[in-house]
Input
Amino acid sequence: MTPECGALPVIVQKYGGSSLANAKLIHNAAKRICSLKDDGTDVIVVVSAMGDSTDSLIALSSAVTGEATPDAREMDNLLSTGEMVSATLMAMALNTRGYGAISLSGGQAGIKTDSVHGSARIADINTDRLRRELDNGRIVIVAGFQGLSDSGDITTLGRGASDTTAVALAVAMQAKRCEIYTDVDGIYTTDPRLTDRARKLAEIGFLEMLEMAALGAKMNPRSIELGAVYDMPIYVASSFSDEPGTLIHGGEQTMEIRKAVTGIAVDRNVGKITVRGVVDRPGIAAGLLQPLADAGISIDVVLQNTSSDGTTDFTFTVAQADVDAAAEIERNQTNVEFAEVVAGTDLAKVSIVGTGMENAPGYAARMFSTLAAAGVNIDMITTSEIRITTIIERSQVQNAVEALHDAFELEKTG
Ligand code: ASP
Ligand code: MG
Output
């Protein structure tokens, strides 16, 4: 431990907007914060804006500017107020309960960022003020999703980034863990809306969680990345109940994580583009994909067939919303000769995820035979060390998830 660390362990708790949507809910969260403080812990609380207030602020700005895009600096000043409202109200709630508390803006809490308004990155955190307030016995409430740039201007970190603030503060303060309280009660083996056999996980590894988060489970992936890099355990639970949540961590693999398949991730908004009859030569992949990158369109699964007669087919997936734009770009690009561009929509991505699959053969075969038995046609396949991904028709998602959940016995623990 460095000398700047106080005697008490630090825990960072973050409350999402829906957990703070009104005065009653603010007190509900305050109660939880007080009992953590009573346990003999130094508590830092990160708050999101109340309910949908960030959306309301955005709507207000467009009501004022009309067609014109609002100035990015003014926008950040505006949006930062949402989190300030909940931070100040939380400090007041704690005070009325007889607890010393102070609210701080991101800047006051020492959070320094680059100057990219609307999607700033945290550069550094000066913990002096936080440490001083904790040493004075206070609970410190920090407005999430914001910081201060070198020029002294308020920046925001991007939608949903209060999670990132919380994990970053936990890292900077060498906290025991970061607790995220939200309206979901943890991480499930798969989307519970797809099968009633979905089971809440007691724990999940960072890498698995990144796959699950990127593929649709509700957590800000940036915060998981930060947790993984600095090995900061993140506990996700509901603020509305006392049910145990899910611990995301990188520690010793315990029984459950050792289970080969941990979960099934689903992304229902997949479109694909196939460029047919591409004249094969070095540079075609770059030639086809660079114009998409220039237009800010992210690609996901990429397949290129081996060529026969000097031509090949090149297929990739994009978010469903980007399909038309991506097809247009490929038809108009002049880097690569091709015969035709075909767009496909209404696809989905279904992946089995688990660190236990690494170096263990047979999981892919089991996944494919399970899907075959369920009558699900696989359109594309891609794998990583801890994931096997299939692209299928969206209408088959439920069928596929139910079959896979049963085949890999995900309803059972350990
Ligand atoms: N209030 C911001 C948003 O709604 C940040 C957050 O909630 O994490 O995106
Ligand atoms: Mg929010």
